[in-house]
Amino acid sequence: MNYFVTAIGTDSGKTLVSSILVEALKADYWKPIQAGFPTDTEEVKKLVSNSITQFHPETHQLKLPASPHAAARFEHLHIQLDDFVEPETTNEIVVEGAGGVLVPINQEDFVIDIAKELEMEIILVANLYLGSINHTLLTVDYLKRNNFNVKGIIFNGDGNPESEQIILKHSGYRPLLHLPKLGKVTPEVIQYWADQLMLSWYE
């Protein structure tokens, strides 16, 4: 199975979670669309320490740190869903999206449509802040109405049991991990949380 990491918004922790997933599963990593520098692929490479993972090149590497549809237009490019071809590998792949679920890649399609096109299972990252219940449940509603296959949810940030409880109740999703606010993130930190993730992965 290949996994598509998406989130309730930008800067929710997708790259951190992707690094943990890659280390836990010894999976390959692929970021189909990168807008801006430094790249998330470079960041994940620094944090993953196993010798099995391969890092596949971005399909679109855009200079402007903006929504993909805008960053592509800035470079006179047009992104299409059929641009995205799954990398050739015998390994599982962790695929990191760009921004939240409904970030546009062109005038019709969204980042999450890449996951649907390539039949990937969704990992939803929800960072916890005032207003995140609404943002998370709106994201869940979209995923459910459009029949996405969701593996589970990873919470990111200081614990908020009331928020987590109501999100889990109304989503029906399985909690895979709760990451606290982390200080310096090192390969050792990633390995620790990868081990924690594996405790609940196959439940």
Describe it.
36% of the residues lie in helices and 19% in strands. It is globular, with a radius of gyration of 16 Å. Strand 7 (121-127), helix 5 and strand 8 (150-156) form a beta-alpha-beta unit. Helix 1 packs across helix 7 (187-201) and helix 5 packs parallel to helix 6. The protein is an alpha/beta fold.
Q: Can you summarize this structure?
A:
This protein is of the alpha/beta class and 203 residues long. It has one domain: Rossmann fold, CATH 3.40.50.300.
Instruction: Give the terminus-to-terminus CA distance.
Output: 16 Å
Number of domains: 1
Shape: globular
The profile of the biggest β sheet is: 7 strands, parallel
What is the strand arrangement across the widest sheet?
A: 4-2-6-1-7-8-9
Family: Belongs to the dethiobiotin synthetase family.
Function: Catalyzes a mechanistically unusual reaction, the ATP-dependent insertion of CO2 between the N7 and N8 nitrogen atoms of 7,8-diaminopelargonic acid (DAPA, also called 7,8-diammoniononanoate) to form a ureido ring.
GO molecular function: ATP binding; dethiobiotin synthase activity; magnesium ion binding
Organism: Roseivirga spongicola
